[in-house]
Amino acid sequence: MKVLVSFQPNKKGSDFEGVRLRKTIKGALEMVGVEHTTSIVDKYDIVHLISPEDENKLNDAKENGIPVVVSALYCEDDPLASYLEHKSKDGVRTTELTSKALRFLNKADLVLVPSEKGRSFLVNSGVTTDISISLPGVNMARFDFSREDEKTIFHRYFREDPERKLVVGLGEYDSNMEGINALINAAKLLPEVAFYYIGRETIPGIYNTLKIKKVISSAPKNIKFINIIPDDIYRSALLNADVFVLPGYKTAGVVSIMDAMAAKCQIIARKQAVYPDLLEDGKTAYLGEFSETLTSLIKDYLTGKLKPTIDEAYTFASKCNLQTIGEQLRWFYLEQINIKKVSK
User: Fold this and answer.
1) pLDDT tens-digit readout, 66-102
2) Which residues contact 283 (CB under 8 A, 6 or more apart)?
3) What radius of gyration, in Å, describes the C-alpha atoms of the chain?
4) Which of 109, 177, 260, 336 is buried most deeply by CB count within 10 Å?
């Protein structure tokens, strides 16, 4: 059995969660001895896709009678691997599956999602393809705490004081910047702590618009706003971060959450941004519905008023190691290949 694992970002700087998920899938397959390729000119028995942008590859596979497995809702912080669109009208926020994503998923043979809530959302959105639950998995070896050279990459790159506590926030830059006040206000309360907000651009060039520059210029000096950074620097940031924050309202990337767990960051997230059956408040993370709550949680944790949930989260991530995920994927693939054989 050979698997085509495909996700090819076509924009500079966009190789974020989608690329990490592809690497994790490949690593998991190697752990269980399943051959894989990323080249569409190779011969393969099954296709595993990550992005709705790969609909042409799905169509080619279906035309040739090759089963297709799709991972959905894992990489919502990556614009090239996102399935959702978020709308706000009269103060009411809604999350919907894009029409392109719905069409894409309904052509697949099997859809994988990270949680039961994710499955319910897709079914309610009109997805009729079979859906199974499988966490994205984590390459725990990527987060080697004994490698001091890995940890110092972040400090050297940003010329940051390694003695300062570090908070890393993940989100996006858009016209509203909803939720960012939670991080900014925490930075005001904790001037001795370094805050870094890593955001993706919802529209190319929006980072340099007057509105975003106004937000940045009015923020305290101990918070820095940066774009998506290379993987080695991002991984180093997680290895140094005391707190990992998801301050926005939009659905966060599960891949990034799992990485934060593996890096032993204390996760503090807006309740609306995470699947309720993925993070457990007070056990693997601290969740808050309002910006004021998130600000207080960050302050209380860094001042020692809240106990860490790091160990529980790390244990959870450890159970989603490459070996375990590889065995799951192999089973899913073989099932789909056998279904194809029987239907011929």
Assistant:
1) 999 999 999 998 888 999 998 877 778 889 999 999 9
2) 309, 312
3) 20
4) 260
